[in-house]
Amino acid sequence: MSVARFWRKIPQRYNLIGTRCESCGRHYFPPRSFCPDCRRGGKIVEYRFPGTGKVVTYTVIRSASEQFENTTPYVLAIIQLDEGPRLTSQVVAKPGDVAVGTRVRSVFRRIMADGESGVIHYGTKFVPVK
Amino acid sequence: MVGIITYGVYIPRFRIKVEEIARVWGANSDEITGGLGVFEKSVPDLDEDTATIAVEAARSAMARRPVDPEDIGAVYVGSESHPYAVKPTACTVGEAIRATPNMTAADYEFACKAGTAGIQTCMGLVKSGMIKYGMAIGSDVAQGAPGDALEYTAAAGGAAFLIGNERPIAEIHHTCSFTTDTPDFWRREGQNYPRHGGRFTGDPGYFRHVKEAARMLLSKMGTSPSDYDYAVFHQPNAKFPKRVAQILGFSAEQVKPGLVVPRLGNTYSGSSMIGLAATLDQAAAGDRIFVTSFGSGAGSDAFDIEVTDAIQDPAIFDLGQAPTVTALLRDPLYLDYAQYARHKGKIVMQQ
Amino acid sequence: MRDVAIIGIGCTTFGEKWEASFRDLFVEAGSLALADAELAGEHIDAMYVGNMSAGRFIEQEHIGALIADYAGLSTRHIPSTRVEAACASGGLAFRQAVIAVASGMEDIVVAAGVEKMTDVGIGASVDTLAGAADREWEGFMGATFPGLYAMIATDYMHRYPLTREQLGMVAVKNHRNGAKNPIAQFRSEITLETVLSSALVADPLRLFDCSPITDGAAAVILAPLERAREFTDTPVRVLATAQASDTLALHDRRDISCLDATVVAGERAFAMAGLPREKIDFLEVHDCFTIAEICAIEDLGFCRKGEAGRLTEEGVTALDGNLPVNTSGGLKACGHPVGATGIKQVCEVVQQLRGEAGARQVDGEIGLTHNVGGTGATVVVHILGVT
Q1: Which terminus of chain A has a smaller tally of CB atoms within 10 A, N or C?
Q2: Domains and CATH numbers, chain B
Q3: B52/A10 CB distance under 8 A
């Protein structure tokens, strides 16, 4: 991922910054500047998701693309944040410790690096909560 | 009065036992655990590094007290394993705790005392009125060369301290430092692993600087060891802090709560700071804590700290909002040497 | 809008074709199609070519012009257009060609698909294919294409009664069909045990649940139905063309186990053809992974959610069943040269309707093709019938 493309989304990657429509109460991640439901009647404000949610579905990636080759096997999941939006991320756990419905919380981890001399991309993954 | 506003710690979940490392190198593990007083050390996950550890420690600190991140005017991260040689870990931490952009930042290196150097800097910025809060972090994923004595203890972890002067949970009465040019332990630019002067790291290194800084502080404060409830020293192993405590006149009971190295290893820049955090985790209002860090190269920073009643007021500070050092040391996941080598990047991969 | 017919088809063999370049593949498929239609190049009015990623596989863009040039038509200066919708590129190229003829803009139009995937290493291939999904919000976090379909499988198997064995039977059936297909990458049958003991790629999907990396090309030639018999005695009529889109990221879908774009495209196709589902005799669906075939059968409305596994186990979708699915061998056994697959599906249906499918022959007068891009962000459905 290029330097600029990663940098542009740092607030989303590091802090799950999305938006909320104050008119209807819907939350959006990634952020939307325009509420599809309320349209011009919507009032959009910034919203930081605290990162709690649950696993909707998951898999264990055993054969990955180049940048992730050295970290297999890892758990990839679709997570539903408590406020509603869903996202795709990794769950840091032994494969057997994750199931549909497992509650999770966000953690700050290294996502990938551009080789040994390129930029390191940090972001948000999840861990199961007891 | 300037002091600690809040603090947080992060320790990765993985461990490797000293006996497993000894097995690989054909060494006698009983001799080693007997000599060092260390049984196991923490190991970072494949996707953890000094920056991720620093962020988790800082976020834990922020979780325990309602602080507006925009009021944080400075972030300093001390480490000897910064992910970049050029591009500060402090910027990533600042962004991750939403303290950016109105703040100053820099990374520090001073071996194991880079984090306490950051505390001193923040104290100065706060006392001078230049900033409201400063975040000082010591974080490391320390490297020990394969087969070297340091490999048994070089561990991963970090602690973050937010410094300010409005209702601190612990006041820092005074700090002083003893610094010389002493080549006891070093790592040249571009080298993977540090080197050290063997037994030279003891008396001319650790003991000289810790003793001198500690005595300087006792003299300045007009105190003696019995005036303190707790003492925390830098912990490269369990022997050195116990011995220097004894030399200075502190008791084993004073040192005990802050002695985390036996089940954690030496977290380098995190070492004395995690020891201080462990002590604060169980301290009560009025407790007085004596802290002296040590960083090779060499220097020691000493602190006279007194816990206030703010620490017991859950409206101000809620310890339970983040894991204590005891909780972080619980439920470890053990690795064998091969997995440990993979986690620590000791296996040379095809580029 | 005029009725459209297919007057010629051509398909290269699919596989790891070291001696064949991207250009070689297209020229071969195109030549076969022209020969089949007994057409000379000068008759072609326009070309549409489906290709997902020549830019990353062979560092070549501007495929529309390249194709026309290598077809020997540069002096004719015909309009030639590259169409991209990830794995639905071929189906979408076919649709664009249908629209061009139906609208009256063009008469004789080539719809082709080509992908040369083996000139780069596996790692680069896997990463390129991940571009069919959401790079920013899925790929960046470590999602692979099999990983996304594996998450569909996990969700599906959590909610519906599909067994791991039934899923494997999809692969067994398709390999059995592929063994009868001269162009297929894999020409031998496999056992269920082979599928279930193959290496895990992304739990629960194993190696044999996944379509392979493949080189190949296919081409069909379209003409207005009113002119079709100038060229062939066995024209096949395009009864419907439909396309639908959905969110790019799987996590934004209404229902992870139901490809709404398939549901909508299917309904639009049946409405356009004026046919109920019972009239469809056989299907070529997009089985990039075994779970995709299960969902396709259901989302096209041929049975309820949760039933396709049982149908597979009961042999309903086998060559000799009531509703044969993927008589060609599907993506699983033929291979999946991404841009070519959608056109290959059309070739198979045409061969079946003409009675030219040899050992794979099924009875039928109406066939359906179903081509999916990504995890369901684009779906293209066509219904073809004898005239």
Answers
A1: C
A2: 3-169+311-343 (3.40.47.10), 174-310 (3.40.47.10)
A3: no
Dist CA A130 CA A102 (whole Å)? 9
The one-digit pLDDT tens for each residue of chain B (351 residues) are: 999 999 999 999 999 999 999 999 999 999 999 999 999 999 999 999 999 999 999 999 999 999 999 999 999 999 999 999 999 999 999 999 999 999 999 999 999 999 999 999 999 999 999 999 999 999 999 888 899 889 999 999 999 999 999 999 999 999 999 999 999 999 999 998 899 998 999 999 999 999 999 999 999 999 999 999 999 999 999 999 999 999 999 999 999 999 999 999 999 999 999 999 999 999 999 999 999 999 999 999 999 999 999 999 999 999 999 999 999 999 999 999 999 999 998 888 776
User: What is the distance between the terminal CA atoms of chain C, rounded to a whole angstrom?
Assistant: 17
Q: Which residues pair with B269 in a beta bridge?
A: none
Query: Is C207:C171 a contact under the CB 8 Å cutoff?
Result: no
Q: What are phi and psi of A24, to 5 degrees?
A: -110, -10
Does A122 sit within 8 Å of B52, measured CB to CB?
A: yes
C375 beta partners: none
DSSP for C41-53, please give it.
Answer: GGG--EEEEE-S-
**Two structure tokens written together for B258:** 């802050």
pLDDT of residue C123: 83
Pairing state of beta strands A86-91 and A52-61?
unpaired
Of A56, A62, A112, the CB nearest to C200: A62
Burial status of residue B129 (CB atoms within 10 A of its CB: 0-12, 13-18, 19 or more) = exposed
CATH of A51-128, one of 2.60.40, 2.40.50, 3.40.1350, 1.10.3470: 2.40.50
Q: The tokens of B151 are what?
A: 């490999």
Which tokens sit at A101?
Answer: 């419905």
DSSP annotation of B350 reads P
The single residue of B48, B56, B80, B212 carrying the catalytic annotation is B80
Distances (CA, A) of C123 to A65, C85, C307: 5, 22, 36
Chain A positions contacting chain C at CB under 8 Å are: 1, 5, 9, 30, 56-69, 71, 74, 76-78, 86-90, 95, 100, 111-112, 121, 123
Beta bridge partners of A120: A113
At C295-334, the pLDDT tens digits run: 999 999 999 999 999 999 999 999 999 999 999 999 999 9
Residue tagged 């970049």 (tokens): B84
pTM of the model: 0.94
DSSP state of A95: G
Q: What is the DSSP string of C101-143?
A: HHTTS-SSEEEEEEE--TTS-HHHHHHHHGGGS-TTTTGGGT-
CB spacing of B46 vs A71 below 8 angstroms: yes
Per the listing, tokens 């639908």 go with C244
Residues of C in contact with A123 (CB under 8 A): 140-141
Neighbours of A99 (CB within 10 A): 11
Q: Helix, strand or coil for residue A97?
A: helix
Distances (CA, A) of B176 to B105, B247, B287, C176, C301: 22, 19, 20, 81, 78
Complete domains list, chain C, with CATH: 4-121+214-236 (3.40.47.10), 142-211+239-386 (3.40.47.10)
Given an 8 Å threshold on Cβ–Cβ distance, is C251 in contact with A76? no
Which stretches does DSSP call E strand in B197-324?
230-233, 288-292, 297-307
Structure tokens at A14: 């590091």
Distance CA C223, CA C98 (A): 9
The yes-or-no answer on residue B209 being catalytic is no
Annotated catalytic residue within B82, B196, B209, B234: B234
Residue C348 phi, psi (nearest 5): -60, -45
Instruction: Please answer whether residues C378 and C372 qualify as being in contact, where contact means their C-beta atoms are separated by less than 8 angstroms.
Output: yes
